[in-house]
Amino acid sequence: MLRKTFHAALIALSVVVLVLVSEQGRAQEAYPTKPVQLIPAGSPGGGLDIHARAIEQALTMEKMLDKPFTVLHKGGGGGNILTSYLVNQKGNGYVIGINSNRVLLNELMGTIEYGFRDLTPIARLTTEFNCWAVRADSKYKTAADVFEDLKKDPTSVAFGVGTVPSNDQFNILLPSKQKGVDYTKVKIVAFDAGGDAMAKLLGAHVPVLSTGFSEAVNQAEAGKVRILSVSAPSKIDRVPNVPCWKDLGIDVAIYHWRGIYGPPDMPKEAYDYWNKKFAAMVKTKTWKTSLDKFELFDAFLTGDEFRKELAKDIETYRELLGTMGMLKKGKK
Predict the structure, then answer these.
(1) Which of these, 232, 299, 298, 294, lies nearest to 47 by C-alpha position?
(2) What fold does the segment set 33-127+256-323 form as a domain?
(3) What is the CATH architecture assignment of 128-248?
(4) What is the DSSP letter of 40?
(5) Max CA distance (Å), the chain
(6) What are phi and psi of 326, to 5 degrees?
């Protein structure tokens, strides 16, 4: 009798275990069970919106989208509106946002109390690179010529940029620092945006412009400007004769990246799902076609790798912003 009871109990326990395992498997397979909000930290038609549409197109065309996206724009505040929104969606696995390095800069400058550690970095997707450009008739033939003047007098060359703080600005300060220039004295003139800055260069208002590569390359191909350097880790195929900083003995590479973030405490099944999904997406033909179309470069990192790079970047930005007196009090 005891043996029969034990046998029956063992069978019952086995059934319970099988049911639990089955239910757990179904729960894991179920995500996502509803549409996911994909939120660019910008307005329709802007760079972050372009990324959102390219993601949606790639996943749809490659038949990888299990549930549709609802694209919700949260522009304004230099990305702060999106960051605040994500923070308030704590634990929600159905909201992901697209933002740039403003996530780091804004926290350090004190325009928002939150930073990347308050979010869930999911993946770094793309980047643009920066470059130094001069007019075609400039006396500066190489970046070395510019550094020669800067070493003699760091105030002798005025650089134009679209905005500060920005990677355009860091693309001046970091190489100058490594070349032994007193980068705290370098003249930097901020204009309204990249296009306005290019107009100022062409109008001879500044001798050198630090700007996005995509802003300069068409002007270079039209023979209006000369690109002296690029901030990529290696030469760019489109301009094979233009050196990167490392070619010039300067250990600097500057990425103007776009990444995907989730809310704090994002469920593991959602985090794992999107890590795998984006890792597969960036290898597709549709995605690579979009990169070529919008002159973007692949910079994919998984969530864990992305988080490590963010930790390095914020320390670099902290030092530079501190030098310029732009750090929020208490952020040193």
Answers:
(1) 294
(2) D-Maltodextrin-Binding Protein; domain 2 (3.40.190)
(3) 3-Layer(aba) Sandwich (3.40)
(4) E
(5) 102
(6) -110, 5
Structure tokens at 317: 């930005």
pLDDT of residue 239: 97
Q: What is the secondary structure of 45-97 as a DSSP string?
A: TSHHHHHHHHHHHHHHHTT--SS-EEE-----GGGHHHHHHHHTTTT-TTEEE
10 Å Cβ neighbour count for 220?
A: 18
CA atoms within 13 Å, Cβ hemisphere of 330 = 3
Residue with tokens 């600097």: 252
Q: Parse the chain into domains and list their residue ranges.
A: 33-127+256-323, 128-248
Give the Cα separation of 50 and 39 in Å (integer): 11
Mean pLDDT, consecutive 10-residue stretches, the chain (332 aa), reads 48 46 52 96 90 95 94 90 97 97 93 96 97 98 98 97 90 96 95 77 96 93 98 96 97 95 98 98 98 94 97 94 81 60
Closest to 254 in 3D by CA, of 171, 311, 183, 162? 171
Q: Cβ contacts of residue 188 below 8 Å, gap of 6+?
A: 158, 159, 160, 161, 164, 169, 172
What is the spatial distance between Cα 322 and Cα 319, in angstroms, rounded to a whole number?
A: 5
Identity of residue 28: Q
Angle between helices 102-109 and 303-323 (to 10 degrees): 40
Q: Count CA within 13 A, CB hemisphere, residue 282.
A: 19
Cα 34 to chain centroid distance, Å, stands at 27
For 234, residues 6+ apart whose C-beta sits below 8 A from its C-beta are 244, 246
Neighbouring CB atoms inside 10 A of 4's CB total 8
The two structure tokens encoding residue 113: 């109390």
Burial (0-12, 13-18, 19+ Cβ within 10 Å), 307 = middle
Q: CATH topology of 33-127+256-323 equal to that of 128-248?
A: yes
